[in-house]
Write a structure and sequence with these properties.
The protein is built from 8 helices and 12 strands. By secondary structure, the chain is α/β, with parallel strands linked by helices. Strands 1, 2, 3, 4, 5, 6 and 7 form a 7-stranded antiparallel sheet that branches. Strands 10-9-8-11-12 form a 5-stranded parallel sheet, sandwiched between helices.
Amino acid sequence: MTLAGPSDQPVLERPREPSRKNGLLTERVLEIHHYTDKLFSFKTTRSPSFRFASGQFAMMGLLVDGKPLLRAYSITSGYYDDHLEFFSIKVPNGPLTSRLQHIGPGDEIVVNPKATGTLLLGNLNPGKRLILMATGTGFAPFASILRDPETFESFETVVLAYGCREVAELEYATQTVVALHDHELLGPMIGEKLHYYASVTREAFHRQGRITDLLTSGKLFADLKQSALNALSDRVMICGNPGMTLDLRKMLIERGFAEGNSNRSAEFVIEKAFVGG
């Protein structure tokens, strides 16, 4: 299956030869969107030589006084897209994000040409239901995974469980899911397979509570009218704040799940690289 990006989006820029500074690829900002005073996303050009697998991250950032200032950023765009996209938090006085949040079209970022990460479908054993658990900007790698047709070819059901503090913080994920259903090629593949479960903790919303609590209590699956967690058929990917990942890791191990990595596939994987400033 060949994908050329969402049909309702124009081709942003023709592939070009990579420009390098300090051994890093230089990419130009094409678009930027601010969702709240803490969250924003942006698109850049993509050098033809840059390759990544869905769910991976790259060291990305800015040149400051001629020196690279980089942090680990999951790539949210599809592996087939001709642009790169990132989803970022704004950290007060953060060395990188305090600068990155002010970029605009035409500005340059730098990207390490080698992508890596553990949130790969190949690090999971075959299963029937894929559960993606995220908080905040932890949604980023799942945007790419959900844009990959292999995800929906490999699993009968895909659940995206996403928790934020405020309703406005859900916007990027919600827009991504809507665009996937409307996608000319991916939409028919996704059909009824994808279930988006969003919850907030600090505002009135039709679903409230911490994602970890909703999972362990069974309310998440009850709301979706699905069966309870099962290590024999469920596979889980986790990305988000450290407290959430530790709680979910402990809970999954107690329920018979094993953690996978690049050396051994298993029932769940966790992304330990999380942008912090």
